[in-house]
Amino acid sequence: MKRHIGNSDGHKSKKGHWALGLLSSMKNKDYLVQSDDRVTMIKDMYPKALHHYLVLPNESISNLKALDKKHLSLLEHMHEFGENYVHKNHPDTNFIFGYHSEASMHHLHLHVISNDMNSSCLKTKKHWNSFNSDFFLHSKGVIENLKRNGKVLLPLSEKCKEYLNTPLKCNQCNFSAKNMPGLKTHLLSHVK
Ligand code: AMP
Ligand code: ZN
């Protein structure tokens, strides 16, 4: 069975129907984790680590470019919402919180992802670097960026390409890997 119809991975062409998938998952009880009147937290459909969630605003906001100062408290709330959930449900696991510089899916989403990066869905160098290079914009930094500039200043697309092509390096020690299979095997050595 082909599982990847409509996912965000590997698509370079104009965004199609698949890019709206997060909106469907927000309404799908199999993916819904918890919500309040401002935000909804879902499970990522193609998790790139043992625990991978997305926190999305309930109001329609397409992406980071659509943000201005009035969204500051929303971004802070999205972060706290994700943080509270993982503190309660995964107290012994390290997570990172952030946004991809160039998102492939429509509707603003904060990645909340455990740092094991241990998942069969994590396959490519691009997957790795989207969470482990400057392509990944840490949530606290995005909030500061918005406070300082009144909008979120993003890296140019040339820079994004460079970031996604960064040589592979472990996120938990200074190991450099030649390729993804090598990195994935190495990551298992960090599993407790
Ligand atoms: P981004 O590159 O920030 O747009 O990442 C989009 C994320 O959404 C990726 O981690 C995908 O695995 C995930 N994803 C793609 N389609 C869906 C879907 N229909 N429901 C939930 N998560 C999805
Ligand atoms: Zn390592």
UniProtKB/TrEMBL annotation:
<feature type="short sequence motif" description="Histidine triad motif">
    <location>
        <begin position="107"/>
        <end position="111"/>
    </location>
</feature>
<dbReference type="GO" id="GO:1990165">
    <property type="term" value="F:single-strand break-containing DNA binding"/>
</dbReference>
<keyword id="KW-0862">Zinc</keyword>
<keyword id="KW-0227">DNA damage</keyword>
<dbReference type="Pfam" id="PF16278">
    <property type="entry name" value="zf-C2HE"/>
</dbReference>
<dbReference type="GO" id="GO:0005634">
    <property type="term" value="C:nucleus"/>
</dbReference>
<feature type="domain" description="HIT">
    <location>
        <begin position="19"/>
        <end position="122"/>
    </location>
</feature>
<keyword id="KW-0539">Nucleus</keyword>
<dbReference type="GO" id="GO:0003725">
    <property type="term" value="F:double-stranded RNA binding"/>
</dbReference>
<dbReference type="GO" id="GO:0000012">
    <property type="term" value="P:single strand break repair"/>
</dbReference>
<dbReference type="Pfam" id="PF11969">
    <property type="entry name" value="DcpS_C"/>
</dbReference>
<dbReference type="InterPro" id="IPR032566">
    <property type="entry name" value="Znf-C2HE"/>
</dbReference>
<dbReference type="GO" id="GO:0046872">
    <property type="term" value="F:metal ion binding"/>
</dbReference>
<dbReference type="GO" id="GO:0030983">
    <property type="term" value="F:mismatched DNA binding"/>
</dbReference>
<dbReference type="GO" id="GO:0033699">
    <property type="term" value="F:DNA 5'-adenosine monophosphate hydrolase activity"/>
</dbReference>
<dbReference type="GO" id="GO:0003697">
    <property type="term" value="F:single-stranded DNA binding"/>
</dbReference>
<keyword id="KW-0479">Metal-binding</keyword>
<keyword id="KW-0234">DNA repair</keyword>
<keyword id="KW-0238">DNA-binding</keyword>
<dbReference type="InterPro" id="IPR036265">
    <property type="entry name" value="HIT-like_sf"/>
</dbReference>
<dbReference type="InterPro" id="IPR011146">
    <property type="entry name" value="HIT-like"/>
</dbReference>
<protein>
    <submittedName>
        <fullName>Aprataxin</fullName>
    </submittedName>
</protein>
